[in-house]
Structures are given as C-alpha cells and as structure tokens.
C-alpha cells in the first residue's frame, strides 16, 4: 500500500530541492522531477514489491536491521529514531491509560449500581457526547482556551522539556513536565474513558443480577462490599480484554495530539514519516504497532489469571 501511494523518497521536485542521500547520483530528470537512483537501489524500489518486502524481512530476521531513515533523518538507523521518541510517548500513553481506567471503571460501577436513575442517565448522555467529540477539535479547543496565546494562559503552547530545563531543580522540572503533558493526556484519555465506562457498566450489570449477589444481599452483606468484593472482580474480564486493543489504539491516536501540541514523540515521528514517504521508518513503525498489539494481548492474558483463579495459562491432561 505504501508503494502504491503517489510519490516516493527517492523522487523530489527540481523546484523543491534535491532528494535526500547521494544527490550526485540523481541524473535522471522526468516531468520536473529528479530521481536518486542510488537511494532507489538501497531501498529496493528498483525491484518488484514482493521482492523488496522479502529483502526487508530478511534483513530483520537475519540481522535485526530495520534499515536507515530515507528522508526524516537521512542515513540514521530507524531504531535509533524510534528509541529516541519512544520514552515520551510511552509515558504519555501510560498516564492516559491509567487515567482512563481510574475514572471509567468507578463510573461504570456506580452507573450499574444506580441503573435507571437520573444520575445514570446523565452519565450515559455525558459519555456519549464525550465519545462523539473529534480529538483534533478537542485538542485545538483546549489549546485555544488554556495555552499561551489563548484565553487563560495556564499551560505552555509547546510540549516536552522547557528550553531552560538544565537550570531547573528536579521538582521544577517535574512540574513543567506535568504542565506540558496534562492537556495531551486528557485528549488521549477522554475517548477511551467514554467507551470503557459503558463497557464497565454493562459487565457489572450482568454480574449484579447473578444468584450469588442476591444471596449476599439476603445475608445482609453491605452494598459496598457486594459491589467491590463480589461484583467488581467478576466483571473485570471484559475490561481486561479491552486493554489489548487500547494500548496500540492510543499510540495511533497520539499522532493528532502530538501534532497539535507539538510534542516530540512517536506520533509526530509517524506523521513526518508519512508525509515524507520514509518507507523504512514507516515499516518499522508498523512493526512496532503490531508488536504493541501482541504485548497488549499477552498482558491481558496474564491479567486474566490474576483476576480469576479459575483461568490457567496451561491445562493439565
């Protein structure tokens, strides 16, 4: 699909500058474009698509080499670029996932315990409205309201470390990182919060109407102990399942958020690789997203065992 899209990293406009890499080899001109043949050969663009993919796959399997960046940072290994941006995005998304579960799960449990009440209906309407808001619009709205140059200039316009971070104490640095990351974390968390709270409500409602819950109530067990000691543990399985898809989904969603708030993370790197047709970097990022999906599913399987002792990773014959 990348190869079928218009443009390629070895082809640049004569009016827009030379192609990256060895521009001396760019000897062919066609329709106002200059083609870098040495870069085409290096990226296997002069070969059929399937052959180029197999050669790329062979480099990963035999040598662990994902290749060098073609346009974003020419000549630099793509793994170095990813490892440079990964800590910031990982911390941002970890905070978003934590905030999502800390707010969505109690809200879903409360809505299930008060199903049909005015509070439950208000929460349902609120989270559906929240879920329908586009991330780009919310990010720009928060930026225009609370960032520098906006209505209330509380947060910095640019994320990441401040320019004077070397002169700040550890506590001042932590505060500046918190200020620059709060709005992006909220943008990443609100969509998942809306959906997860509804799933939590549905799974808890199924457990609330179970026979063992009615038995506990007939014995006089306090309601809070029924909710958090009986209903909540038995309704965790669907919420754990959602975690497997939430992790890679947040990485993909951070592209827009990092672009709006100008954050130096994986999202902005992904956008730069797409706009500049950096094939090696794009393929490495896609592989990383696939690995995140597998990791999310593995963590979910391990959490199943912790949430329900009846679930085992291996079965005895």
Name some characteristics of this structure:
317 residues; mainly alpha; MetI-like fold; three-stranded antiparallel beta sheet; 65% helix; globular
Outline the structure in words.
The protein is built from eleven helices and three strands, in the order E-E-E-H-H-H-H-H-H-H-H-H-H-H. Helices cover 65% and strands 3% of the residues. By secondary structure, it is mainly alpha-helical. The model is unreliable at 13-32 (pLDDT under 50). It has two domains: 11-63, no CATH class; 80-307, MetI-like (MetI-like fold, Orthogonal Bundle). Helix 4 crosses helix 6 (170-208) and helix 5 packs across helix 9 (236-260).
The main sheet orders its strands as: 1-3-2
So how many helices? 11
CATH homologous superfamily (4th level) name of the largest domain = MetI-like
- Helix-strand category: mainly alpha
CATH hierarchy, class of the largest domain: Mainly Alpha
Sheet of most strands: 3 strands, antiparallel
| Count of distinct structural domains | 2
Topology:
Blueprint: E1 11-13, E2 28-30, E3 33-35, H1 37-42, H2 49-63, H3 78-113, H4 118-132, H5 135-146, H6 170-208, H7 211-218, H8 223-234, H9 236-260, H10 266-275, H11 279-307
Antiparallel strand pairs: 1-3, 2-3
